[in-house]
C-alpha cells in the first residue's frame, strides 16, 4: 500500500513539475484583481463560490494548456538540448498519463464554470476559450505571432473573471487584459531568445528565430513600454489613487531591470528575468491595488 501511495505522489509531483504550477502566479493575480474590483461594483455581491470558481478555472485551464503543450511539443523538446530533460522526452511521465491529465483538467475547467451559476456565460464560453488556450501550442508551427498568442490566452483571465461576476465587460478588465497582453508577449520574446538558433534550424516560427535576437529584444522593450501606458489606463479607469500611481514607478523600474540584464551577447540571465522579476511584477500590481483600495476606498 505504501509503495502505491509513494508512486502516486511521485506521479502527482511530476505532473506539477510538468505544468510548472508555480507559473500560475503570472495570470492569477490579474483574475483576482478583476474580481476584487468587480465586487466593489454596485449590485455585485461577494460569494465564496465565485471565488472558488475563479481559482478552480484558473488552475484547471492553465494546467490543461500546459500539459497539452508538453505533450504536443515532446518531439521538438527532445531535439532541443535546453528542453531534452523535460518529463516526456526524459521518460519521467508517459504519453497516456499526460493526455489523461489534460482531459481531466479540461473537464474540470468546464465544470468549474458552474460555480458562477445562474450566470450562464462562463459555461457557454468555456469551450471556445479552452480551444483558444490549447491552440497556442500549435502556433509556433505556422506564425511568428506565437508569442502574442500566449499573451492573448493569458489576457483572457481578468476579462473572464469580470464577465463571470458581472455578466458584462467594462474598462478596468480591458486595461488589465492589455497589460497582460504586452507584458507576457514581451517577456515571452525574451525567453524565446534562448532558442533562436534551434528555431531557425528546425524551421519553427518565432520572432528571435526569424528576425534575430536584437529585433526580438527591441520588440520586447516596445511591448513593455506599452505596459506602462496601460497601467496608467488601469489607474484612471479603476479610480486608483496615489499609492498605485507611485507603485507604477516601481513596476516600470522592474521592467527596465528585466531588459538591462538581457542582451544579444548575454542571455545567461533570461531565467532570472522570466521567473523572478515577472513574479514580483504580477504580485506587485495586485498588492498595490489592494493597498490603494484599503487606504483610499472608493
UniProtKB/TrEMBL annotation:
InterPro entries linked: Polyprenyltransferase_UbiA-li, Prenyltransferase, UbiA_prenyltransferase, UbiA_sf
Membrane-topology descriptor: Multi-pass membrane protein
Keyword Zinc-finger included in the entry's annotation: no
Highest taxon listed in the record's lineage: Bacteria
An example molecular function term from Gene Ontology annotations: 4-hydroxybenzoate polyprenyltransferase activity
Annotated transmembrane regions: 21-39, 51-72, 92-114, 120-139, 146-167, 173-194, 215-236, 242-261, 273-295
EC number: 2.5.1.39
Coiled-coil region: none
Pfam families in UniProt: UbiA
Cell membrane keyword on record: yes
Principal location listed in the UniProt entry: membrane
Cofactor(s) of this protein: Mg(2+)
GO BP, sorted A to Z: ubiquinone biosynthetic process
Cellular compartments per GO CC: plasma membrane
Subcellular location: Membrane
Record's keyword terms, sorted: Cell inner membrane, Cell membrane, Membrane, Transferase, Transmembrane, Transmembrane helix, Ubiquinone biosynthesis
Protein family per UniProt: Belongs to the UbiA prenyltransferase family.
Protein name: 4-hydroxybenzoate polyprenyltransferase
UniProt organism field: Planctopirus ephydatiae
Gene behind this protein: ubiA
Amino acid at each position: 500500500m505504501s509503495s502505491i501511495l509513494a508512486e502516486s505522489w511521485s506521479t502527482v509531483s511530476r505532473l506539477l513539475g510538468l505544468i510548472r504550477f508555480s507559473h500560475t502566479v503570472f495570470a492569477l493575480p490579474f483574475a483576482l484583481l478583476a474580481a476584487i474590483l468587480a465586487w466593489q461594483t454596485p449590485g455585485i455581491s461577494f460569494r465564496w463560490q465565485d471565488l472558488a470558481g475563479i481559482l478552480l478555472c484558473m488552475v484547471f485551464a492553465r494546467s490543461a494548456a500546459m500539459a497539452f503543450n508538453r505533450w504536443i511539443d515532446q518531439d521538438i523538446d527532445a531535439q532541443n538540448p535546453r528542453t531534452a530533460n523535460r518529463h516526456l522526452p526524459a521518460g519521467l511521465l508517459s504519453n497516456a498519463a499526460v493526455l489523461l491529465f489534460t482531459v481531466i483538467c479540461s473537464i474540470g475547467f468546464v465544470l468549474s464554470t458552474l460555480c458562477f451559476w445562474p450566470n450562464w456565460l462562463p459555461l457557454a464560453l468555456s469551450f471556445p476559450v479552452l480551444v483558444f488556450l490549447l491552440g497556442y501550442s500549435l502556433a509556433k508551427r505556422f506564425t511568428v505571432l506565437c508569442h502574442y498568442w500566449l499573451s492573448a490566452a493569458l489576457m483572457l483571465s481578468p476579462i473572464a473573471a469580470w464577465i463571470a461576476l458581472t455578466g458584462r465587460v467594462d474598462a478596468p478588465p480591458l486595461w488589465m487584459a492589455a497589460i497582460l497582453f504586452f507584458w507576457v508577449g514581451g517577456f515571452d520574446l525574451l525567453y524565446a531568445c534562448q532558442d533562436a538558433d534551434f528555431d531557425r534550424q528546425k524551421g519553427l516560427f518565432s520572432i528571435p528565430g526569424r528576425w534575430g535576437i536584437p529585433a526580438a529584444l527591441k520588440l520586447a522593450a516596445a511591448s513593455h513600454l506599452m505596459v506602462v501606458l496601460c497601467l496608467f489606463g488601469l489607474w484612471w479607469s479603476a479610480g486608483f489613487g496615489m499609492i498605485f500611481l507611485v507603485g507604477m514607478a516601481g513596476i516600470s523600474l522592474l521592467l527596465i531591470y528585466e531588459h538591462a540584464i538581457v542582451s544579444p551577447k548575454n542571455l545567461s540571465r533570461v531565467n532570472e528575468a522570466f521567473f523572478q522579476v515577472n513574479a514580483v511584477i504580477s504580485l506587485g500590481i495586485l498588492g498595490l491595488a489592494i493597498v490603494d483600495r484599503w487606504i483610499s476606498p472608493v
